[in-house]
Amino acid sequence: MERKKILITGGAGFIGSHVVRRFVNNYPDYQVFNLDKLTYAGNLENLKDIEKKENYTFIKGDITDADFITHLFQEIKFDGIIHLAAESHVDRSISNPLEFVVTNVLGTVNLLNAARLIWNGQYTDRLFYHVSTDEVYGELGDHGKFTETTPYSPNSPYSASKASSDHFVRAYHHTYGLPVKISNCSNNYGSHHFPEKLIPLMINNIMNNNPLPVYGKGENVRDWLFVEDHARAIDMIFHMGRMGETYNIGGNNEWKNIELVIFLCRLMDRKLSRQEGESEKLITFVTDRAGHDFRYAIDSGKLMSELQWQPSVTFEQGLEKTVDWYLSNQDWLNNVTSGAYQKYYQSMYINR
Ligand code: NAD
Ligand code: TYD
């Protein structure tokens, strides 16, 4: 019997690589195609352990190129799509919003059009699964959590582009009946995370004894989820979630940035055999991010009650695994922080 053909976009990135690994290892009956442009955030090193498996195929390509996407879909006729490819960093979206519109909105619409074209109304056993963020809901004050019915109110160019892509996915379901599912997840952390985001940037700077740039007073709150728990939630929603539905995914694990950074410093003091309190001395408060959302928190009740999903690790366990991975994969960090990263770091952090 022919294998089911599953396309995962953005599979060389942080979360995508965990989703690809999970699908390749757990579903030998699927042929998993990883479509990635390999931007600064995409790295095939992330998939070294599975790249030779016979049910895995890598395709280098750009989701913003409509002709390329149409031809690809006509050639391979995917049964399912899990769409993660995106520009994903808020700070970069503040410097260059248009890139986010092109990749996140146009790229998503190209994929929706191509799926519609090849499926041509034959939707049995077909699915377009769109991976999104909790940032589409905007910011919270001190209380409350985002649910699936919280109105969209994105504040950054990144979250506005993701919100727009979510709306297109929903509209293709409503207008053309395209079989879709959407999930909106909170902040992820774990291995293979590019060191522009808070946790890997701090780990890298602590290792190198560089200043730890905390935006504003460090009082903003994020809800952190271990990336493998996100990948497992995607797997469950892909296979068992209801068609046309949105599921929120979160860790029920809120941290003020400054408290998280101090916690990480103490963990790394132990790992690096430093005196307790030594890494904390590197903390430096820097100019706040423009339009910085105060707090995100997710209510994952729907996912937990409908599909019995639960996070599998505590934050303490997940963070320790993450730090251990970075300490034993310094070559990976050195590779991704050489070259263009230095320029990025200069422009974002020096004289901030
Ligand atoms: P990432 O930046 O690590 O990876 C993005 C991947 O997309 C990279 O491999 C990149 O090469 C690829 N890509 C970018 N533009 C492309 C294009 N035009 N064509 C093909 N590939 C392209 O991102 P991530 O953190 O892994 O996030 C993945 C998805 O999950 C995104 O859609 C993001 O919005 C969403 N998300 C992320 C988080 C988080 O905490 N990181 C939380 C919730 C949702
Ligand atoms: P980030 O990892 O960029 O995720 P997001 O903005 O999508 O939630 O940032 C997480 C939080 O950490 C956010 O409140 C901004 C803050 N932050 C810093 O204080 N310093 C940094 O160097 C970075 C990258 C983020």
How would you sum up this structure, described in words?
There is one protein chain. This protein has about 350 residues and is α/β, with parallel strands linked by helices. The chain has a domain at about 5-190 and about 225-250 and about 295-315 and about 340-350: NAD(P)-binding Rossmann-like Domain (Rossmann fold, 3-Layer(aba) Sandwich). Helix content is about 45%, strand content about 15%. The protein has 12 helices and 12 strands. It has helices at about 15-25, 65-75, 90-95, 95-120, 155-175, 200-205, 225-240, 255-270, 300-305, 315-330, 330-335, 340-350; strands at about 5-10, 30-35, 55-60, 80-85, 125-135, 180-185, 185-190, 210-215, 220-225, 245-250, 255, 285. The chain has a 7-stranded parallel beta sheet, with helices on both faces. A 3-stranded mixed beta sheet has the order 7-9-11. Strands 8-12 form a two-stranded parallel sheet. Helix 1 (about 15-25) links the parallel strand 1 (about 5-10) and strand 2. It starts with a strand and ends with a helix. The relative contact order is 0.13. The mean pLDDT is about 95. The chain binds nicotinamide-adenine-dinucleotide and thymidine-5'-diphosphate. The site of thymidine-5'-diphosphate (TYD) has 12 residues, from helix 6 and strand 8.
Quick recap of the structure?
By secondary structure, the chain is an alpha/beta fold. It contains 12 helices and 12 strands.
